[in-house]
Known about the structure:
Blueprint: H1 2-15, H2 25-36, E1 40-47, E2 52-58, H3 62-70, H4 77-81, E3 90-92, H5 93-96, H6 99-103, H7 106-112, E4 119-127, E5 131-139, H8 146-150, H9 153-186, E6 190-194, E7 200-203, H10 205-211, E8 217-220, E9 223-226, H11 229-245, E10 249-256, E11 259-267, E12 280-288, H12 295-302, H13 306-316, H14 321-327, H15 332-345, H16 351-359
Antiparallel strand pairs: 1-2, 1-5, 3-4, 4-5, 6-7, 6-12, 8-9, 10-11, 11-12
Helix pairs in contact: 1-2, 1-9, 12-13, 13-15, 13-16, 14-15
Amino acid sequence: MPDHRIALRRAIEAVDHITDPEPPWQDILCTARDLVGAESGTLIVFDARNKLLTLSAIGFSDACFSEYQEHYYSCDILEQDGRNAPAGTWLDTARMYDAAHLQRTEFYADYMAKHRMAQLLSLIIESNTVLHAAIGFQRASIDPKASDRLQSGDFARYFLALRSQLSQRERNQAIGWRSLESAFSEVQEALLLISRDSMVDKLSSLAVGYLDDAGGWTLHGRRLRHADPKVQRLFDAHCAAVARDGQMRSMATASGWGELFWVDISIAPQALSLIGGRMLLVRMRKKSAFAMPDIAKLQTVFSITHAEAAVLAGLAAGHSVEEVATLRHASVLTVRKQVASLLNKMECSRQSELVRLASLL
């Protein structure tokens, strides 16, 4: 019994860190496995298309780990039979299948038996439109009462604490998302939080407007899609590359004549990932050749006067010096002097260079 109390304390201490920006999943799995009394433990996350997103394991051999990742996840009987079960459901091969049926499955005959797994126990910890996740335990012998035991006493309290911490992490995630959404909306950037296969988990209000604006980007079955197949292939390739190496990728797509969407794809902050693998953050901003540059921003960035910034904005919008003078109710000579001052202050030799610098904002 003292060993049980020590295992329980360690397991609960590990679970308390689920709300950390980067939870120690290996420590959580290790202490949970020791508490349960199993040979190995796993955290498995599938996406909405039943593809393996994340596999974290403790007690697995290299061969066991790689074989599951490469093939056997696709015939995992517990995952298949638990896809529609809500979070909090326990799955137990000893309860769900008789021995003869289990032994006829590829998963048992070619995987479980090979790696000395006689019984699998799995608790579904998340089930939504984006992902399906479970914490599982693998035993070398069958305990017919294992699932009952894990749902009572100290075990029940531990798994209740685990799910409670996950709920708190989800609340923290929502707060973090709202902060990001507010910050980027201020600079007219739309945000989407997506999985590696473009399943949208969250999107900002501005993103909703952009996707409804017939600019080519839409949501189809909660997946971010573009009407142009070439654009879609490039976007998917960028997502895969970002997920692989963590380096941001950017692309531009036409939104209409003289307008485009600029899209940045990067790894999302770990705090925005609920369980296991990292999510991707997509930032979209609309740019128009007809949009008048922000005069206040030009003034601040280039350390010029307000009047000079207004002239620069007019030039960047495609107007000639004469047209800027007319629009500003000023003389052509005054505007020419302001252009000369801009060339000096912004260290440019030609008016076209002024326009190029202004267009960067």
